[in-house]
Each structure stands twice: as C-alpha cells, then as structure tokens.
Design brief:
- It is built from eight helices and no strands.
- The chain is 56% helix and 0% strand.
- The model has no long low-confidence stretch (mean pLDDT 91).
- By secondary structure, the protein is an all-alpha fold.
C-alpha cells in the first residue's frame, strides 16, 4: 500500500534528475557549434547553408511537436531533442570529396528529416502533412526549387 516503508539501503540506488526544456536559442547554438565544425572542409556554398539546416530542422521539429500529437493509435508520435540530433548525425556521414555541393547537402537533409520524422508517420494525412512541411522548408528556408531537390521520386543516401 501507500504506507510501505522504504529503507535507506534501497533508496540509495535511486536518484532524482530534473531538467528544463531548452530555449530555441540554446538549441541553435548547440547545433551551430557542432555543424560548423563538421562542415569546415566543405565549400563556402555548403557552409552558408548551416543556419538554414538548423532553422529547417527546428521548424520541422516545432511543427511536429505542435501538430503531430500522440493519440492511442499514434502513441509513438513523441518527439524530443534526440530527433534533432539524429538529423544532424545523418548529415555528418557526408564527405567533402563526394558531397561538396549545397544541393546535395539539402537533399541529404531532406532524406534525414524524412527518415527521422517521416518514418514514424502511419496515416496518409500525416504523410501528406510531412510533404507539405518539407516543400515549405525547401522553398522558404533554403530558397531552392522543389524539383531541384526532389529530382527523383526518392532520396536515398547510404554508405557502403
């Protein structure tokens, strides 16, 4: 019951951890430091996209938090800071020798966003929502044409 005595010997194995939600500026600064360091060997056209990569990822993340709420059939629609990290972790697979073009980097970003966020989506409405958000990010944040990025039906990146 509720009056069970818990000994100090048992309590010593537990600890309390509390954290607050990061402000957007803190998230931007964390990922800006990481991504700028990674893209140092790349051309300036790629380095100039760093702030757009961060803005686009935070935009998708914030929209997913606000609009893709968990429900009983969609209980896995839970998003956290780790999802932003997974997008940038996927971008860190790129190499300056083979992917030294801003279009290729944005394509990889789109691939990673679809992999991290889009692979969880189960309904056609949610998948079309993701497509709309990606199109908006490409045209508004990256200021690129949708057909330039999605020139083929699927974006596939891999390291073999």
């Amino acid at each position: 019951g509720g009056r069970t005595f818990i000994t100090e010997r048992l309590k010593r194995h537990y600890s309390l951890l509390a954290s607050s939600v990061f402000q957007e500026q803190s998230i931007r600064q964390i990922f800006k430091t990481i991504v700028e360091h990674f893209f140092q060997p790349f051309d300036d056209s790629v380095k100039n996209q760093v702030s757009n990569l961060i803005s686009g990822t935070i935009f998708i993340f914030d929209k997913a938090l606000a609009e893709l709420l968990p429900t009983p059939p969609k209980s896995h629609y839970l998003f956290n800071l780790r999802d932003i990290w997974k997008v940038f972790l996927g971008l860190c697979v790129l190499r300056a020798k083979t992917s030294n073009d801003s279009t290729v980097v944005v394509r990889c970003w789109c691939h990673e966003v679809q992999r991290v966020f889009g692979d969880r989506l189960i309904s056609k409405e949610d998948l079309s929502w993701m497509k709309e958000q990606m199109d908006f990010a490409v045209t508004t944040i990256f200021k690129m044409g949708i057909l330039d990025i999605f020139e083929r039906e699927r974006l596939i990146f891999g390291s073999f």
